Amino acid sequence: MAPTSPPARILIVEDEWIIAAALQLRVSRMGHTVVATASSGREALEKAATLRPDVVLMDVKLRGAMDGVEAGTSVQSRLGIPVVYLTAYSEADILARLQGSRPGGVLRKPFTIDTLQPVLEEILFRQRAAGPPPSSSATGPTTCT
Fold it and tell me: Which residues of 26-39 are buried (b: 16+ CB within 10 A; e: fewer)?
């Protein structure tokens, strides 16, 4: 399934390797490039700063001191990279934190290519319509809300 827009460079952040591998396969089948995978919030921040992906797919619950919402908020505010959160949880406090982080999108697990692709396409469309990405020294919020 080829993307309707130019292929995107995507960072996948998921601490369960089998889910990360399945997601990488789905993204590749959509015609996009997975630039890296990360399994913790800290690793996600480092790879996002170094690789500057177009989009980050971020699991909400990560092992370690920094969860996905905290890492995603930092990626968006520091780097201007849109984040799509992936979650199996529907508790009100988690959903409120997600909305407060101004996500590029939120997908509930399990999801399919049919639900992932439109979210990615919309983010990429908005991102490209907004112009070139901010420099690596950007500190403002992402242009994707």
Answer: bbeebebebbbbbb
Q: What is the pLDDT of residues 46-63, one digit of tens each?
A: 999 999 999 999 999 998
Give the pLDDT confidence of 68-80 residue by residue, as tens digits. 999 999 999 999 9
3-state SS assignment for residue 13: strand
* Integer Cα distance of 40 and 71 in angstroms: 9
Q: Which residues pair with 9 in a beta bridge?
A: 33
At how many degrees (to 10) do helices 113-129 and 17-29 cross? Answer: 70
Task: Kindly report the CATH number assigned to the domain that includes residue 21.
Answer: 3.40.50.2300
Interval 1-6 mean pLDDT: 60
Strands 55-59 and 33-38: unpaired
Which secondary-structure segment (H or E) carries 96?
A: helix 92-100
State the residue range of the domain holding 97. Answer: 9-129
**Domain assignment present for 67:** yes
Beta-carbon count within 10 A of 99 CB:
10
Task: Please indicate, yes or no, if residue 125 is contained in any of the structural domains.
Answer: yes
Q: How many domains does the chain have?
A: 1
